[in-house]
Each structure stands twice: as structure tokens, then as C-alpha cells.
């Protein structure tokens, strides 16, 4: 397990920021890091995402900022050049993985079907997307046939569901809309921390 993967697993809940406003994405990162949440995934759906990633990586050097929705070699190259510490794809993206491997950057491959999860998990931590489609029961089914897989469910997971996913066997959980869309970010961050605590193994 790499240092970056260890940091993701240790934090257990990873904010996935899909804000439509680059400035808002930057401020969200600042506030999350100030609250002690320093592993964050930005996404390539943010306008001018490479500039945002570069600015956050420069100004918050102790944080571990990754880039999600990386599905092409070009996007992977731009993300690595902008300082991404890890890359995430929602589905198999071999060309993007090849760039990440060449640059020595952790690539978290994604998928939904058992075959996709099996392939992605053979490289390490993998992403189950969209997690809400199959729910907790589907995660259990995947673990039954892939007991060694380290799976990070993401997509449609509410803040108040994080602990349930962790108890169900998720290695980590990605949380998006409920966090960056919250009217009270401080309250949302506090709820996230509480859910992580409740979902920790006894």
C-alpha cells in the first residue's frame, strides 16, 4: 500500500468536490483542510479544473489533493502536471492508468460490474460507482466473491449513510453532493466526522 493509499484509507471518508464554480471549489478545500480533512478529491467536471488543482496544491501543500473523473490520457497528464497526488476514474480507463503509472501517481480505477471491480481491485484500492445503484447489499455481494478487494463506494452516498457503508465493509467512502452542496458546510463537516467515527471498526 502506497503512502497516498494509506492516507485515503486512514481518513475513511473522502470529500469529492464537483462544484460548478472553481472559486467555490478552492474555498471548500481551504475549509476542509482547516477542519482537519486533508485528503480531498476534486473532479475534472469543475470548469478550469487544472488551474484549480494547481492553485490548491500550491497553496495547501500539506494536503493530499487528487483528481477524479479522469478518463483519458490527456486528462491524466494535465492532472499530474498540476500536482495531483492521486487520480480516480469512475470506469475502466487503461490509457489514464498508463499515464499515472508512468508518473508514479496512484490511480484508483472504477467500475460497477463484478468484472470491472475485479480488474480494478487487482491494482489496489478501487472505486465502486455509482454506489447507490446497488446499495449496501451489492457491496456485500462483491465482497463475497472478491473478499480481498479494497473498495471505495462513491456516488449518491448521503452524509448520514457513511457509517453504514463503512460497517458494511467499504475501505473508504466518497461523499459529494451532500457535502459541497450543504447550506452549512461546518455542520456538514462535523456530521462527516461523526459518521466516520461511528463506522470505525470496534
Descriptive key words:
four-stranded parallel beta sheet; 50% helix; alpha/beta
Task: Kindly describe this structure.
The protein has a 4-stranded parallel sheet with strand order 3-2-1-9, with helices on both faces. Strands 6-7-8 form a 3-stranded parallel sheet, with helices on one face. The mean pLDDT is 94. It is built from 10 helices and 9 strands. It is an alpha/beta fold and 202 residues long. The longest helix has 15 residues, at 131-145.
Secondary structure layout:
Layout: H1 3-11, E1 13-17, H2 22-34, E2 39-43, H3 49-59, E3 64-68, H4 73-81, E4 86-88, H5 94-103, E5 106-108, E6 110-111, H6 114-121, E7 126-128, H7 131-145, E8 151-153, H8 162-167, E9 173-175, H9 177-180, H10 185-199
Parallel strand pairs: 1-2, 1-9, 2-3, 4-5, 6-7, 7-8
Multimeric organization? single chain
Overall average residue pLDDT: 94
Q: Helical region count?
A: 10
How many β strands by DSSP? 9
Which percent range fits the helix content?
Answer: 40-55%
Order of helices and strands: HEHEHEHEHEEHEHEHEHH
What structural category arises from helix and sheet content? alpha/beta
Lateral strand order in the biggest sheet = 3-2-1-9
Q: Which residues sit in consecutive blocks of at least 5 with pLDDT less than 50?
A: none
Question: What's the story with the biggest beta sheet?
Answer: 4 strands, parallel
Question: How much of the sequence is in beta strands?
Answer: 15-25%
Shape verdict: globular
Radius of gyration: 15 Å
N- and C-termini, Cα separation: 23 Å
